Amino acid sequence: MKINIERDSKVPLYVQIKNQIRDMIYSKIIPKDYVLPSERELGKSLDVNRSTVVKSYEKLKEEGLISSQVGKGTYVIYSDEDISNVKSNEFPKSLFWDEIYSESSKNNYNTVINEIMNIHDNGKTISFAGGIPSPDLFPKEEFNKIQKNLLKSKVEEIFSHSPVTGHKGLKKEIKKLMLGREVRASIKEIMVTSGSQQGLDVIVRTFVNPNDIILVEEPTFFGAIELFKSLGAKVIGVPMDKCGIRIDILEYLIKKHKPKFIYVIPNFHNPTGITMSLERRYEIIKISGKYGIPIIEDDPYGELLYEGDALPPLKALDRFNYVLYLSSFSKVISLGLRVGWIVAPERVINKLSMFKQLTDLHVNTLSQNMICEFLREGYYEKYIKKIRIEYALKRDLMIKELEKSFKEIEIYKPQGGFYLWCRFEKKIDIKVLLKKSITNGVNFVSGNFFTVKDKEETRFIRLNFTYPKKEEIIIGINRLRKSLDEMIET
């Protein structure tokens, strides 16, 4: 429904809107039973006050053209057809989409990921919310060069299809990358995915049935929690300490619930930033083998080590193929490229590919080729060294600004990754703080999103330090302080 507003016209805005809707009704562009946008939606799309649209709709009702009904909205009732002799069931009724959603989609999953991905919609807000790499550090020159060369020499290949499990050349480069992480895998044990989130989705859809139990670290990545729940799995949290998941409680819960999987993020955990100790890694591998429970190892941040020694992933310690390993280039190079991978036994990869082909056939061929060349040309190692230095500086700057402005916050300093996990010493309403912060032009993610029971109260917030510029970190922390002061004052 297209409406043009002439703001310089002497005709009142509500009359312009009313007249154009009336003309569309008379000309049957919008037919009988057509549901009009709500007053709020139409007002927003036309950039006018809701009251203006309300007045337009009232005039149309007075003319007998539209009506309103709870549950149905505002709809067209005018028709110039003679329908006195026609049975009502011969006319199609308005379709109420809410009534035909699947049972799974009727659940109210939180929209935090969608909200984070919309950060570009408002350039005035400083975002500490998203798990997004710095756009300022993206290797523009290298990818420019790669793209030009590909367009000259491999134009047919880069715009053609790709195998479901991924571009062979890229899989060879990932194989080399995994060797650097002490994991030996053949290219038949690697599948390229649209980021590690798709990898997780494919694994869960392949293996998990409704009511299966999945044990996760508590807290953990909200995208994993929502995915598991959407497929009907029961998610149970296992507490963490400074060394990672608590093995004593994990073993107790395994005995009690006989879970289908254990899901963990050993390196620079999201959201806490904790790195699972080497001893704890050996213990969880031992527990996995003892009870025959496979592990999903999510490792999107493993390359982003700023201090200390690099520890081998669980997959490197996995002698009997109990670990399904996920990683991604999204957190390191660019979120927009959407390329990740799975390392798993060949027979598992074959099964996963059957499910993957039902969703996207294959990962974007151009992205696969570009990343393949980025790795092949040796750009990747240089780029990793550069961003490690820059992200460490940003991490330290954010910690410095928090310590300067907040005496009531405990901060865990991570050895790598993207996030600071901050705890308020005194109980405060995090939802109110978030609301005030957004009003003041800064956002973050509340800690309750990372718990299995997201309605629980929390004293935690997660702050991303990789995405904002250094000057934005300083301004953003000041805005966060201002928001807390406003809460205290009220």
Automatic annotation (TrEMBL):
Question: Which Pfam families has this protein been placed in?
Answer: Aminotran_1_2, GntR
HTH gntR-type domain location is 11-79
| Keyword match Transcription | yes
Which Gene3D superfamilies does the entry mention? Aspartate Aminotransferase, domain 1, Type I PLP-dependent aspartate aminotransferase-like (Major domain), Winged helix-like DNA-binding domain superfamily/Winged helix DNA-binding domain
Q: Which CDD domains match?
A: AAT_like (cd00609), WHTH_GntR (cd07377)
In the UniProt record, does the keyword Transcription occur? yes
**Which keywords appear in this protein's UniProt record, sorted alphabetically?**
Aminotransferase, DNA-binding, Pyridoxal phosphate, Transcription, Transcription regulation, Transferase
Entry's PROSITE patterns? HTH_GNTR
Q: Which domain of life is it from?
A: Bacteria
Gene Ontology terms, MF aspect: transaminase activity
UniProt xrefs under PANTHER family: HTH-TYPE TRANSCRIPTIONAL REGULATORY PROTEIN GABR
Similarity comment text for this entry: In the C-terminal section; belongs to the class-I pyridoxal-phosphate-dependent aminotransferase family.
Name of this protein: PLP-dependent aminotransferase family protein
